Amino acid sequence: MMDDGKLSQEEIDALLKVGADDDEMDNYGTNAPNSADYLSTIEKDTLGEIGNISFGSSATTLSTLLNQKVDITTPEISIMTKADFANEFDFERVSIYVNYIEGFDGQNVFVMKSEDAAIISDIMLGGDGTSPDQELGEIHLSALQEAMNQMMGTAATSMSTVFEKRVDISPPTIKLEKPDSANTAETISEDGYMVKVSFHLRVGSLIDSHIMQVLPIPFAKQFVAQLMKASSSDGQKDAAATVELDRPQEQTNQEQRTAHTENPQYLGDHVSQNTSSIQQATFSDLEQVALNSNEKRNLDMLLDIPLNVSVELGRTKRTVKDILDLSAGSVVELDKLAGEPVDILVNEKLIAKGEVVVIDENFGVRVTDITSQSDRLMKLK
């Protein structure tokens, strides 16, 4: 700086050079942008809640498929650039592309490490996940695609409930990508900025890693706006329901005031009551239907109905093994003693007891006791 307090030409050129260098830097530098500049706190919380609900149900589906305990923690929301994507996902990965075909218009991508994908595909193919193939072939990707298809389908169903409308997705597309691949970032975002939703994924003792959801900022804001709209609609319905509940009470009070004015007796009976009037309900009298002599003989119409009469000598319980061991000549012991009365059943309802007799060459039963009318009615219920 010169003695007069002014900048020298060299200093001015140096400052201008710094500014030019800043302009020439990549617009999407490696420093992560401030997420508050793109998503408000409410929007981030809303995206986290959507992720919790959709991936919570997906975790249950994955747990059923793998027969392993699956935990997915609360997601972390952040903003990333294309350069950030290349720096953060510097490993071989599997990208699952999901397109929304109904309810929303957009695409998002789920990214997971290839070794985690190998464990899931190994279990899907009948292995135990402890020693999966390091190289993912077509059969492994197909198995992983099936798992992701069911997970994403469950997530779409949960979102349909949250957003109160049908949400449908296309079958996920699986791609195995190298560390230096930027296809995902190029596909998901045109302006270079995107939202990353990071979930901590644990599958039994086999996987303790992360799975990331990447979606463009406009699509993320579309989620938030739709959920806010659904919540606002619910609030309006609640308010309308409150008004509907209050209005009949006002009408009841008005009817009471009218009754007080027009009916002095009503006023005398209720002048000391501050609560709503409770009156006894009145119903019209039922007309007695006269039956002629033919109609009174209802029982005669039932006399020709056939009934199934059976005699039960006794019962017993046996295991499946015992039943399979039965052969010709086997003896099955019943729970009744010799000479004990047998049960007489009508349509499988006990009505009497008797003893077995032989009539000519046929067996018969002699009724020795008939159950009381009250017992028969109780058994019919």
Overview of the molecule:
By secondary structure, this protein is an alpha+beta fold. Among the domains are: 31-229, CheC-like (Chemotaxis protein chec, 3-Layer(aba) Sandwich); 306-325 and 334-380, SpoA-like (Surface presentation of antigens (SPOA), Roll). Helix content is 41%, strand content 22%. The strands form 2 sheets. Strands 1, 2, 3, 4, 5, 6, 7 and 8 form an 8-stranded antiparallel sheet that branches. It is elongated, with a radius of gyration of 40 Å.
Which short descriptors sum up this protein?
single chain, alpha+beta, Surface presentation of antigens (SPOA), eight-stranded antiparallel β-sheet, 10 helices
Radius of gyration equals: 40 Å
Low-confidence stretches: 18-32, 264-273
According to CATH, what is the topology of the domain at 31-229?
A: Chemotaxis protein chec
Total strands: the figure is: 12
Share of residues in helices: 40-55%
Largest sheet: 8 strands, antiparallel
CATH architectural category of the domain at 31-229: 3-Layer(aba) Sandwich
| Mean residue pLDDT | 76
Total number of helical segments? 10
CATH class of the domain at 31-229: Alpha Beta
Tell me the name of the CATH homologous superfamily of the domain at 31-229.
Answer: CheC-like
Can you lay out the helices and strands and say which pair or pack?
Elements: H1 9-24, H2 41-66, E1 70-72, E2 76-81, H3 82-88, E3 93-102, E4 106-113, H4 114-124, H5 138-163, E5 168-169, E6 173-177, H6 183-188, E7 193-203, E8 207-216, H7 217-262, H8 264-270, E9 309-312, H9 320-324, E10 342-346, E11 349-359, E12 362-370, H10 373-380
Antiparallel strand pairs: 1-7, 2-7, 3-4, 3-5, 3-6, 4-8, 7-8, 9-10, 10-11, 11-12
Helix pairs in contact: 2-5, 2-7, 4-5, 7-8
